[in-house]
Design goal:
Elements lengths: L5 H10 L4 H21 L1 H4 L2 E7 L2 E6 L2 H9 L1 H10 L8 E6 L8
Parallel strand pairs: 2-3
Antiparallel strand pairs: 1-2
Length: 106
């Protein structure tokens, strides 16, 4: 099997209207979701879920406003842990929102 350079792969994807930044953001969000409980702990992790990532802003849905508040208190520690992962997209800001999300575990 022939090896392909990453730049060539992205060029091919762009020809099919795939955006490199969008791909990086999607992969970064998937990694954060996968590791969310390790980043915030099981109790907070089971009551919240990273929903989206755009322009370096991570939006996290929380089951309850108290969960959002607890995560907000730990914001700098969570950001430090995320930065330690050396992800394709840097997270500059985390926004915690309380409310119903269809993806949150009941």
């Amino acid at each position: 099997m022939k090896k392909i350079e990453l730049a060539d792969l992205f060029q091919s994807l762009e020809n099919f209207t795939f955006d490199k930044e969008e791909i990086f953001a999607d992969q970064t969000l998937k990694i954060i979701r996968r590791d969310w409980n390790d980043l915030v702990g099981d109790v907070l992790g089971d009551s919240s879920l990273p929903q989206s990532l755009k322009d370096g802003k991570l939006l996290v849905s929380c089951k309850h406003s108290l969960i959002a508040q607890e995560l907000d208190f730990a914001r700098s520690e969570i950001l430090r842990k995320i930065l330690d992962k050396k992800l394709p997209i840097s997270i500059k800001k985390i926004i915690f929102r309380a409310g119903n999300s269809p993806n949150l575990k009941k």
